[in-house]
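Fill-in record for NAD-dependent deacetylase.
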Amino acid sequence: MKRIVFLTGAGMSVESGFKTFRGNDGLWEDYPVEQIATHEGWLANPTLVNNFYNRLRKKLYAAEPNEGHLLIKELEKDYDVTVITQNVDNLHEKAGTEKIIHLHGELTKVCSSKDPDDHRYIVELPADHCEVEPGQLAGDGSLLRPFIVFFGEAVPMIEPAAELVAQADMLVIIGTSLVVYPAAGLVQYTRPGTPIYLIDPDDTPTRASGRLTHIKKGASEGMKEFIKLL
Ligand code: OAD
């Protein structure tokens, strides 16, 4: 089976009701990114950060995957499909995709603020109990925090992701501005000659542009067009 690797970003979830990061003056879901997605922001006001992700988590539990997510799942019938996503939502999971790598963490989960990658303290919050209370602690006694990779923190999943991209027969990039590293650098791991498709209604700068087919549409319409090209 041919291997298709998808690299998805915030645009993938727009049609499910979520906002992009860079679409509205550096605000994400109406907050400055520095306040709610950086290590400094967390240190300055952990309660504000937890409350922000509490609200987003509630919204996520009520959200549904869009046609784009579902079409990616469908391709598993004929292809070996892997999704590498920068998104912290679980909409690829809800669509049923089997192999998913989350580069920037998972909103459904919370973790230790002393060591976010200590797997003993990573917990998935159920839909009916999905809020972190102010002052709530992780198993190691540190403040409980969202399992999200903030700016300024390491991206532990980048190595397995790079290996998958290096084995891909095709790379499909959907809804990402490709400005955040190390995720944006994944494109460089494709083997020479590997076809690259970009599904995005806007022009996205990428160094791979020479061998890239740009389908200038939103995620769902773009996926339909991509499938026709296969
Ligand atoms: P951006 O907001 O930077 O880019 C979103 C992209 O989606 C843009 O290129 C839009 O043109 C495109 N887009 C908009 N509507 C779309 C639609 N309906 N279908 C398809 N594409 C659409 O978001 P990301 O590139 O994902 O990190 O941002 C990367 C990272 O920066 C995020 O993962 C996040 C943020 O800081 C963390 O949370 C750590």
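KEY FINDING: The two ends are 14 Å apart (CA to CA).
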